[in-house]
Design brief:
The protein is of the alpha+beta class and 158 residues long. The chain has 5 helices and 5 strands. The longest helix is centred in the last third of the chain and has 14 residues. The relative contact order is 0.16.
């Protein structure tokens, strides 16, 4: 998890969100409102959302002037129904959500408060850490037999 993620607010201009994504090398930004008690998650905006805000002819253009962007505010393109996890959720639950729902990151919330973001890159880092702790590392070609062995162990209850 990345604590204290880069955020944008609903009224942030789409062009500013693009700049923030580029500057911080991320593909999604939580949309949140600051309060005395912390950040309240309102939604999430992704690169895909921002691309949809461009005029159709922008696909062929090298540089799109900001005045040609169809929408103004992040609130106009963000996803309002956001999959989230809590800091106490098991890592496999988060990995399953990312995989099954085909999303790139999950905001981490504690009650109404945004406390971080968990990306596919974070999970890949956790996988590397866990694999390096193993006495042997399965080869890429052994994926099917490794999974089959795990399934046999689970079926036996061991």
């Amino acid at each position: 998890m990345t604590p204290h993620p880069i955020i944008v607010q609903p009224e942030t201009r789409v062009t500013r969100a693009v700049v923030e994504m580029s500057r911080h090398k991320v593909r999604q930004l939580p949309v949140a409102l600051p309060h005395d008690w912390g950040l309240e998650l309102c939604g999430i905006v992704t690169c895909h959302d921002l691309l949809r805000s461009l005029p159709p002819e922008a696909a062929e253009a090298e540089d799109v002037p900001s005045e040609e962007i169809i929408v103004d505010a992040v609130a106009d393109v963000m996803s309002r129904e956001v999959l989230t996890v809590s800091p106490d959720d098991p890592l496999d639950r988060a990995a399953s959500l990312l995989l099954e729902r085909r999303v790139g990151a999950l905001p981490v919330v504690q009650g109404p408060r945004l406390v971080g973001i968990l990306s596919r890159g974070d999970l890949l880092g956790a996988l590397v850490y866990l694999l390096r702790a193993q006495p042997f590392l399965p080869k890429i070609s052994a994926k099917k037999s490794f999974i089959a062995a795990q399934e046999r162990r689970s079926a036996r209850g061991s």
